[in-house]
């Protein structure tokens, strides 16, 4: 979990190579080739008219959280094992897509939540295997490289 958090901080500190691919009035999505795997990294950015604490309540990775209510790509989120109050092993499931051509997915990740001195909040995760969460029938087991969300306070 700590390695995933550090990788996300490195991505954030390195502004080079990002290319815009989609943009609306609220969100800009960029991508760049990964140096870790054969594929791309994606970054979404936006400024919301809300306090960082209210935004964090919507995105933080906790069982019974708000993410499953607003994110159509997250069907369920459960904590398999709470290791500390900020580190846990979690299972996230996603619904099928494209008229059920794409099967539902499940992801098992170790997740860390951090808050920094400047008020920035981070959730970082990466794939892990856990004996209490073997692959489930009717799901394709997905694999996450280091990934997560920053919630960064901005003036005003």
Automatic annotation (TrEMBL):
<protein>
    <submittedName>
        <fullName>STAR5 protein</fullName>
    </submittedName>
</protein>
<dbReference type="InterPro" id="IPR023393">
    <property type="entry name" value="START-like_dom_sf"/>
</dbReference>
<comment type="function">
    <text>May be involved in the intracellular transport of sterols or other lipids. May bind cholesterol or other sterols.</text>
</comment>
<dbReference type="Pfam" id="PF01852">
    <property type="entry name" value="START"/>
</dbReference>
<dbReference type="GO" id="GO:0070508">
    <property type="term" value="P:cholesterol import"/>
</dbReference>
<feature type="domain" description="START">
    <location>
        <begin position="1"/>
        <end position="156"/>
    </location>
</feature>
<dbReference type="GO" id="GO:0120020">
    <property type="term" value="F:cholesterol transfer activity"/>
</dbReference>
<dbReference type="GO" id="GO:0015485">
    <property type="term" value="F:cholesterol binding"/>
</dbReference>
<dbReference type="InterPro" id="IPR043556">
    <property type="entry name" value="StARD5/6"/>
</dbReference>
<keyword id="KW-0446">Lipid-binding</keyword>
<keyword id="KW-0445">Lipid transport</keyword>
<keyword id="KW-0813">Transport</keyword>
<dbReference type="InterPro" id="IPR002913">
    <property type="entry name" value="START_lipid-bd_dom"/>
</dbReference>
């Amino acid at each position: 979990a700590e390695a995933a958090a550090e990788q996300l901080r490195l991505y954030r500190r390195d502004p080079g190579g990002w290319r815009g691919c989609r943009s609306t009035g609220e969100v800009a999505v960029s991508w760049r080739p990964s140096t870790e795997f054969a594929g791309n990294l994606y970054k979404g950015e936006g400024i919301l008219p809300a306090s960082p604490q209210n935004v964090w309540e919507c995105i933080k990775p906790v069982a019974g959280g708000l993410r499953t209510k607003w994110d159509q790509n997250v069907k369920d989120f459960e904590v398999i094992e709470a290791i500390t109050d900020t580190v846990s092993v979690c299972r996230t499931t996603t619904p099928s897509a494209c008229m059920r051509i794409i099967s539902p997915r499940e992801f098992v990740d170790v997740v860390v939540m951090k808050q920094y001195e400047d008020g920035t909040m981070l959730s970082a995760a990466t794939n892990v295997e856990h004996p209490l969460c073997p692959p489930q029938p009717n799901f394709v087991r997905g694999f996450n490289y280091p990934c997560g969300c920053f919630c960064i306070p901005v003036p005003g």
